[in-house]
Specification:
By secondary structure, the protein is mainly alpha-helical. The chain has a single domain, classed as Methane Monooxygenase Hydroxylase, Chain G, domain 1. The protein has 3 helices and no strands. Helix 1 packs antiparallel against helix 2 and helix 2 runs antiparallel to helix 3. The protein is elongated, with a radius of gyration of 17 Å. The termini are far apart.
Length: about 80
């Protein structure tokens, strides 16, 4: 455990960020599963793409990962249609 006051604050802040980022990543997985499910509405696919873009813009996930997930989702929905 750090002894310096600013280091203690840094530990608290990083833990808070870690939990928030984990929450967003978990939500992204759920959104992705719903959008890739059979008979998913086009709005669900668009919402998933938007969520991935937002997460990438905030630095929660890498921009290439967001692009890869969006591409795979579009490919999957096109195959079902």
């Amino acid at each position: 455990m750090p002894n310096i006051k600013s280091a203690k604050k840094w530990v608290r802040a990083s833990e808070k960020r870690r939990k928030r980022n984990l929450d967003v990543k978990t939500r992204l997985k759920t959104i992705y599963k719903r959008a890739s499910a059979a008979g998913a509405a086009p709005e669900a696919v668009a919402a998933a793409a938007s969520a991935f873009d937002k997460a990438a813009a905030r630095g929660i996930i890498h921009k290439n990962k967001a692009g890869r997930k969006k591409s795979r989702l579009a490919k999957r929905t096109a195959a079902k249609a």
